[in-house]
Amino acid sequence: MTAAITGIGAALPERTVPNSHFDAIGSSDEWIVKRTGIRERRFLAEDGRLADLAVTAARTALRRAGRDAADLNHVVVATTTPDRTTPGLAVEVAARLGTPRAAAFDLHAACAGFVYALDQGTALIESGRAEAVLVCGAEALTRITDAADRSTAVLLGDGAGAVVLTDIPDAPVAPAFHLASDGEHIGLLFADRHDRKLRMDGPEIFVHAVEKMSDATRRVLERSGLACDDVDLFVAHQANARIVRAVGKEIGVPPERLFLNVDRVANTSSASIPIALAHALEEGRIGPSGVLGVAAFGAGLTWGAGVLGW
Ligand code: ACO
């Protein structure tokens, strides 16, 4: 069995928030664009439901895959900001899609969550335990953002994206993943139970992000016997344009194969890669078939990279 992506979808909240919104907390459009590449982001309304975005993204992915929700064996949602503490977001998404037989669970691996979930979905298909898996990344980071802290508030946005994975016997590549974590660095990026707001050492996170995503990507390419040139599109976690470009430079991905949409959506944590994939598809950067490289990094630290076909 060879898992590949057969459908991609995304959904963003309606409210667009430009950089000028943060003038009031001592930031500026110039600072944000120069340091991060971000120009605007979307915010979910205070009473908005993340499940609505996840379901919309999932329906689009299923339609583009030419699949019915009833075909799904598993629904996996990567999220750190679900609507409820319990049950997980995936259970509601599965029910609203109409999946009578799907197992559904949430996966929490911070900004690396989507790559972890993609690895799980791929493994389910390769082992023959699933025929079709929906892998979603959905985040309302505004729920854990300190709106008065300019060092984090300007970086984050809300949204959801989803992909459908199925067995494609003639897929252009056999999937490979490398996942890792290092809890020694919890203090660099966390939201604790009492304060519930993200606290971050930005410059330290920057250095780890570039180092870890580059290392994981190199390992995956080596394991797959692929050269960087064999990857048609490389989509890294959209934390910051400088981080993504630095990873591209480290591993030798030319700019035309490196996808960036952080200018429009900011950092949407585990939703960032599937949203970027949907935008890449809509911009014609994803043709009928190709090799995709992904890499992500987040709190924990957690990180990972993968290659798979579409
Ligand atoms: N507007 C204006 N000034 C600011 C802002 C802001 N939004 N934020 C910080 N500054 C100031 C600082 O106070 C500092 O001022 P000082 O020199 O007077 O002390 C100055 O700008 C430089 O601050 P640095 O933190 O050194 O700036 P840096 O160039 O490192 O950029 C940034 C900061 C953008 C946060 C960068 O470090 C980064 O992108 N790090 C990675 C962030 C990330 O990706 N985090 C993970 C995502 S969060 C999650 O997982 C959900």
Provide structural commentary.
With 310 residues, the chain is α/β, with parallel strands linked by helices. Helices cover 32% and strands 25% of the residues. It has 9 helices and 13 strands. The protein has helices at residues 29-36, 50-65, 89-97, 113-126, 150-153, 202-224, 241-251, 262-265, 272-282, and strands at 3-11, 15-18, 40-43, 74-78, 103-107, 132-140, 158-167, 176-181, 189-190, 199-200, 233-236, 291-298, 302-309. It has a 5-stranded mixed β-sheet, with helices on both faces. Helix 2 (50-65) crosses helix 3 (89-97) and helix 6 (202-224) runs parallel beside helix 7 (241-251). The radius of gyration is 18 Å and the shape is globular. The chain starts with a strand and ends with a strand. It binds acetyl coenzyme *A. Acetyl coenzyme *A binds at residues 27, 31, 35-36, 110-111, 141, 150-151, 154, 189, 198, 200, 202-203, 205-206, 209, 239-240, 243, 267, 269, 298-299. Acetyl coenzyme *A is lined by residues 27, 31, 35-36, 110-111, 141, 150-151, 154, 189, 198, 200, 202-203, 205-206, 209, 239-240, 243, 267, 269, 298-299.
Features:
310 residues; alpha/beta; binds acetyl coenzyme *A
Radius of gyration: 18 Å
The amount of helix comes to 25-40%
Class inferred from helices and paired strands: alpha/beta
The total of beta strands comes to 13
Form type: globular
pLDDT < 50 runs, ≥5 residues: none
Chain-wise SSE layout:
Layout: E1 3-11, E2 15-18, H1 29-36, E3 40-43, H2 50-65, E4 74-78, H3 89-97, E5 103-107, H4 113-126, E6 132-140, H5 150-153, E7 158-167, E8 176-181, E9 189-190, E10 199-200, H6 202-224, E11 233-236, H7 241-251, H8 262-265, H9 272-282, E12 291-298, E13 302-309
Parallel strand pairs: 4-5, 4-6, 11-12
Antiparallel strand pairs: 1-7, 2-3, 6-7, 8-13, 9-10, 12-13
Helix pairs in contact: 2-3, 6-7
